[in-house]
Design brief:
CATH class of the largest domain: Mainly Alpha
CATH superfamily of the largest domain: Dehydroquinate synthase-like - alpha domain
Number of helices: 14
Order of helices and strands: EHEHHEHEHEEEEHHHHHHHHH
Strand content: 5-15%
Distance between the termini: 33 Å
Structural class: alpha/beta
Helix content: 40-55%
CATH topology of the largest domain: Dehydroquinate synthase-like, alpha domain
Radius of gyration: 20 Å
Strand order of the largest sheet: 1-8-5-4-2-3
């Protein structure tokens, strides 16, 4: 595909500020925007770490009230969104701050937009969620992981409890207004969550580059993201206090978020969202396990691109043919999984009898349409059976 001759367009609605201690600017942003009361959307576990009070302080210092909504779970559901909307209206909050990983940020986005739109969040499932009204409640995102890219992306993933299925929603109305990307907020992230969220970012960068909707911009940002993550994820997982590694991971995750906002994800996320919804496993874990399998499925599509990805992953491809260098990209991803001690498919509960259902649901996921090689139910079944054997 000669991208130099194809028209492209993208928009960055979100104002991004990056760096240690930028989270302290939240109070100034709310005050300058005329906000009177903030709904802080987060996970209740942060109360034990003191992080909720830490990020609330600069807001309260501006004489702005903070209402806490800490009902978000690891995999946010439609019912949590409904509860959040009710709390937003009851508290008369006029600003939302999301503190956490992709779950908290996705929940906050949906709470804000559903406060201004009719029906239920399930009514808007799809790559182009047809929300009739923009959310009037401004949103600041404060990511505590380096993985989801949710701090800037116009996407959200919410579990439909009636189907036990993770829905993807895409809309410019889901884009946050401000993102304060502060690596200091990621320092206490445990090793496993660091690895899972980091691999989510790595996969997003690779998926966006392989996507049928890739552009010169997403390729350039994706390569930079892959390099940063491959070099720094093992360090950040092993030494959580390493601010340089954490900072580079925050940058890599932010870039990967821009990549998928432009070009979308592919079948890796189709499978991960389906598995995660069925077995209630961490999203980043599921993404990581499926990444090499989907890369293998798409292997014959573009050897040159995969060879470039291999080099961005830190592989020395000198002396290798383009095809062999491309194959090393898959080898390196598997090597990273081993180095970071990821569990296998059996340990997350993947059952052979569930394969037909998983394949059917994954084939209908919105990310499947962007996979560079067409995928049907049978292709998903083949990947899943290989995963079970492996």
């Amino acid at each position: 595909m000669n991208l130099a001759l194809v028209q492209h367009a993208f928009s960055m609605k979100t104002l991004v500020e990056y760096g240690p201690e930028v989270f302290r600017k939240s109070g100034d942003i709310v005050k300058q925007s005329g906000g009177k009361k903030v709904l802080l959307v987060t996970d209740g576990n942060f109360a034990k770490t003191g992080l909720i009070e830490k990020v609330s302080q600069p807001i309260k210092e501006k004489q702005i009230a903070v209402e806490l909504f800490d009902r978000v779970t690891t995999e946010p559901t439609d019912t949590i969104v409904q509860e959040g909307v009710a709390r937003l209206k009851e508290s008369k909050s006029d600003f939302i701050v999301a503190l956490g990983g992709g779950s908290a940020m996705d929940a906050a986005k949906c709470i804000g937009v559903m406060a201004e739109n009719p029906g239920r969040i399930m009514d808007y499932e799809g790559v182009e969620s047809n929300f009739p009204n923009d959310g009037k409640c401004p949103l600041i995102t404060l990511p505590t992981t380096s993985g989801s890219g949710a701090e800037i992306a116009g996407w959200a993933v919410i579990t439909d409890t009636s189907r036990n299925y993770k829905m993807s929603l895409g809309s410019p109305y889901l884009k946050p207004d401000y993102a304060l990307v502060d690596p200091v907020l990621t320092l206490d992230l445990p090793p496993a969550q660091t690895a899972y969220s980091g691999f989510d970012a790595l996969s997003q960068a690779i998926e966006g580059m392989l996507s049928k909707r890739r552009t010169p911009i997403s390729l350039a940002l994706g390569m930079c993201a892959v390099k940063l993550i491959a070099e720094n994820l093992p360090r950040a997982a092993a030494r959580g206090w390493d601010l340089e590694a954490r900072s580079n991971m925050s940058t890599g995750s932010l870039l990967a978020g821009i990549v998928i906002d432009i070009s979308g994800c592919i079948a890796v996320h189709s499978l991960a969202e389906t598995i995660g919804g069925m077995y209630h496993q961490p999203h980043g874990l599921c993404v990581a396990l499926f990444l090499p399998h989907v890369m293998k499925f798409n292997f014959s599509g573009d050897y040159s691109l995969l060879a470039q990805i291999a080099r961005a992953l830190g592989v020395n491809t000198e002396g290798y043919s383009t095809r062999d260098a491309a194959e090393l990209s898959i080898f390196r991803v598997n090597q990273l999984l081993d180095d970071l001690k990821f569990p296998g498919f059996h340990e997350i509960g993947l059952k052979e009898e569930d394969i037909p259902k998983i394949a059917e649901l994954a084939s209908r996921n919105v990310c499947t349409a962007d996979n560079p090689r067409p995928m049907g139910v049978g292709d998903f079944e083949a990947i899943l059976r290989e995963a079970v054997k492996g």
